[in-house]
């Protein structure tokens, strides 16, 4: 009987304890609603599937992807790990507008609205949101989560600056913002006295080294754009165990105190521009397990504590200019000496003066060239119109044709033959042309990371990059020989700044870098182009799903865009630009299917001629007239592929298609319709097709002098689309259009 009473008392106590624990861990209805809002705003990721009105969030099964901890009826920890990955490219378009990536949340997502919901979890101490595809500028309202101790939003697409309000989170012990798109300077974090872990790696932060509190245990700033000396104040960081500053642009010597910090175990300074030598009497902390100083500009000998072999310590020192080590893994001394001089940042005063001088020179040259362009255009237009021969006789309404030919563009339409070329390059939505600094170019390409190398050819290397405003660009690096300078360089830079047109992959800016003591290459020019991400015309014609998008009216609009781009290169700048490597893969299409020519010739002293055309003629030996007709021939090759939908890979294939078009044109409408790409059937007027085929055949004439001028090609294409518009407005267009 006594035992029964004891047993009953124990069960009652256990029941009351469990009841109290459950009620204590049960969320308030308001915080339950907040979690459902989080699920909705994150667009129902897989890790949050299965939630219902019966879910007890405080007793979810343990998972490495999801953790919710409740205390006194409030959420104190929220950890969600998705599968969106870290950003390998910027999700901003060349216009600066955010472009949704397959790795990001949708266009309707708002990071600000998401954090507005999160701040209602007023007791939150741990917030970890990893690889969820979050995008947008970092909200300043983060300071409302005043009780936060751990903040981890790594491997997302958060861009802009780290808000200064983050220093209000005085309880923070861990701050992890790694692998995002953050840029600019880091706010002063000295006031975060509790902070022990700081990880800002894999962003675009810099250039100054951040100001930090000395209680940190882990500092990771790798893969950023820090360009300064390592501050000597780090000697006061007595608790520091891990310091990773790799893959930046840090300059100057390595402070001796880093190796002897009392707690240091891991030191990574690889892939910077650190220079100078080590002091002879440096000592290393016995706890130091890894030191990586590779790929810098260090000279002299390693200190004995790094040079001696030890099973407890790994030292990586390759690709410096250190003596006493294997020469197969070190540069010669002269390399580090010259490179250290080249990367030494100029004084602000000198930099400002040189910028003013360059701007003044370009301004003066611009005025002179501008006058010459206007006069030259007037003369050229008179000559061309007097010599012009039209390949189709008919009434041409320029305004109607232009309206149709660029209907995919938001730019006002005018007859391209009736206005000066310089006016046509305006109002295309580009930022003003800029002269950039080397630092900006290095930041954009992540110090010319090989992973960002897109192409390498006889005209230089092409890198993909991201400017500090988040916009995506292409950066072409061209090395010039001393003999080409400086007599015509400024004039060519002025021409370069004019290469901005609706139907060109436009030039956004340039940077000139001169290394006075470099024996072989005196000057490198970096040319910055806009980035077009929607693929090429070749991509569309080779993909059956994309090909169906290109009905006949869209194809005509693209051909007119290509022709206008060529016309601008020939006559919109002085002197004209010819030999433009016009291939179907170099015709890029933006989101509105507007054609933009890429990989055209840029007027630089070291420019090597374009690749040989399909029919084997050498453009380098041509006069400017023949070079113009060579571009017309290559336009004809593009037109053949647009009409038939068949890609041309050889001269033989091209000749077969040309003969097929010629023969079927002679045989009549039914035969000619049969050779057109089936994806366009029912969407074209026969008169439009016939006119396009006629001008295509003329472009492919084997005798260069018999080919039409680019103005004649443009006139006929515009007439073609005018007849197409009339046919469409008469109700003849197939219902699927």
From TrEMBL:
GO molecular function, one term: protein serine/threonine kinase activity
The protein's name in its UniProt record: non-specific serine/threonine protein kinase
Main location: membrane
Natural source organism: Turnera subulata
UniProt xrefs under SUPFAM superfamilies: L domain-like, Protein kinase-like (PK-like)
GO CC, one annotated term: membrane
Keyword Methyltransferase among record annotations: no
Signal peptide location: 1-25
Compartments it resides in: Membrane
